[in-house]
Amino acid sequence: MDWKDLPDLAVRTRGGSVVLANDETFGEKEKLIKPGVPQFQPHTFGHRGQIVDGWETRRRREPGNDWAIVRLGIPGVVRGIVVDTSWFTGNYPPEVSAEAAWADPLDSSVRSADLAGPRIEWTEIRPRSPVRGDSRNGFAVDHGHLVTHVRLRQYPDGGIARLRVHGEPVGDPRWLAGRAFD
């Protein structure tokens, strides 16, 4: 089966959420996992400027990169990602990378802020790779481990309309403890 045929583990309708981003000056991080295709409405302005259907950061004047952390709605094994830069023709990141981590969903001591710190171990699942603007940039992933979170990095900054994280859903057997099934 092609990885593009696997379900999107991160989409909002499956319970995904964008828990952290280092910048969202022009477009909200939550738009990364909206269902459906990105839309463009010319000449629509809000308090942040042109209203965009995606996550957009300010121009970076110092070294580094911008990032967003997505909690998957369904933990699973990631087989591919799509970084959709639809409608971003001038302000898209030239390169992106992705990392994955396991943060025990039943551990109430793990807070969102912990995801950006040393408490969580991140593993690169997609090395820094070029992307095109106004395109759906697809990347196969060969990771093989169960994950709950994905961190998308853009180098150095820009706009990304959607992130799709395709993979094999894996249920946590601890949720079944003490339950009878027919």
What are the segments in which pLDDT stays under 50 over at least 5 consecutive residues? none
Helix content: under 10%
Number of helices: 0
Percent of sequence in beta strands: 35-45%
Q: Would you tell me the structural class of the helices and strands?
A: mainly beta
Provide the succession of SSEs: EEEEEEEEEEE
Number of strands: 11
What is the general shape?
globular
How would you state the average pLDDT, rounded?
A: 88
Distance between the termini: 30 Å
Radius of gyration: 17 Å
Major sheet size, sense and barrel closure: 7 strands, antiparallel
Summarize the structure.
With 182 residues, the chain is mainly β. It has no helices and eleven strands.
Main features:
single chain, 182 residues, mainly beta, seven-stranded antiparallel sheet, two-stranded antiparallel ribbon, globular
Describe this structure in words.
This protein is mainly beta. Helices cover 0% and strands 38% of the residues. The protein is built from no helices and 11 strands. Strands 1, 5, 6, 7, 8, 9 and 11 form a 7-stranded antiparallel sheet that branches. A hairpin with a 2-residue loop joins strand 2 and strand 3. The radius of gyration is 17 Å and the shape is globular. The two termini are 30 Å apart. The mean pLDDT is 88.
List the SSEs and their pairings:
Blueprint lengths: L16 E5 L23 E2 L2 E2 L4 E2 L9 E19 L10 E7 L21 E8 L5 E5 L5 E10 L3 E2 L1 E8 L13
Antiparallel strand pairs: 1-5, 2-3, 4-10, 5-8, 5-9, 5-11, 6-7, 6-9
